[in-house]
Amino acid sequence: MAVKPKSQSTYVRDNRSPIPLNETVSKYMRSNKSKNTKPEMLFRKALWQAGIRGYRLHWKKAPGKPDIAFPSKKIAIFLNGCFWHRCPNCNLSLPKNNQEFWQSKFERNIARDKEKIEALENENWEVLVIWECEMKEDLGQQIEKVRRLLNPTIQNK
Ligand SMILES: [Zn+2]
């Protein structure tokens, strides 16, 4: 078993994330922007190309400010990064260092996501969560899910 170098001791700055100690964590952390992340940009581009319009981004009037909201249809979409939102499909392991920090951080993220969805559903919104890995796997299929939600009558076409 490898001995941990001293440099990997816990280092938490206030409430912020610890300094990433490996490239994977570092990469994930760089992608932690709440707005206009790359998957979100790709998704919006794909929506546009599919001719889907009429959505608002991070609409403040909807509970939880969903990434994408169709106000007239009360449909909300969250585009979740697998690392930060703890994707059930990917089931990523905790970063090796500062596990306590990450554990509580992720628990807060998951709780917040759940609250947002519940708040929306309480106001009769329909909520769709699309994971980053699903987008990577088949973006077209995710756009199709949105289309079906928007137009339930064309479901079987
Ligand atoms: Zn995933």
Give me a quick take on this structure.
The protein has six helices and four strands, in the order ααβββααβαα. With 157 residues, the chain is α+β, with helices and mostly antiparallel strands.
Itemize the secondary structure elements and their pairings:
Layout: H1 23-30, H2 38-49, E1 56-57, E2 68-70, E3 75-80, H3 82-85, H4 99-122, E4 126-131, H5 132-137, H6 139-150
Parallel strand pairs: 3-4
Antiparallel strand pairs: 1-2, 2-3
The structure holds zinc ion (ZN).
Q: What does it look like?
A:
With about 160 residues, the protein is α+β, with helices and mostly antiparallel strands. It has one domain: VSR Endonuclease (Endonuclease, Chain A), CATH 3.40.960. It contains 6 helices and 4 strands, in the order H-H-E-E-E-H-H-E-H-H. The chain has a 4-stranded mixed β-sheet, sandwiched between helices. Strand 2 and strand 3 form a beta hairpin. About 5% of the residues have low confidence. The site of zinc ion has 7 residues, from helix 5. Zinc ion (ZN) binds next to helix 5.
